[in-house]
Amino acid sequence: MMQAAAEGAFDAIVIEDIDRFARDQADWHTARKRLDFLGVKLFTALGPVGRLDGSLRALMAEHYIENLTLHVRRGMAGRVRQGFAAGGLAYGYDVVKAEKGARGARTINAEQAAIVRRIFAEYVEGRAPRAIVRDLNAEEWDRAPSRW
Fold it and tell me: Is the pTM of this model over 0.85?
């Protein structure tokens, strides 16, 4: 976007809010200075964004992100303390169908776990990770997830 602005592709940017444009004050001030120099105006649903209100909103956005990070980490730690997974599904595990409130329970997927054990065993034997991956790919694992 900054390259297109430098090439004169547009003279205004419309964003939902400051936090959609810059996640911290440093990014905000750097981008704002460059856009000011290029003559590009910035607008949100509230109207044009000036230097002062933009700076204040960037400060609030940065504080919001920091606070959100703390809340997410606390929530994830609580799930781990309860014995549940805190993130997405890892290869080698299946989601346990559970009642509401028990989300995050996992069980070992025996077929996938055998592949994981094989990978670790080959690595411990001294095989290079690239060689292990090359062999797995050459074997065309039908059972591997599509994200491989």
Answer: no
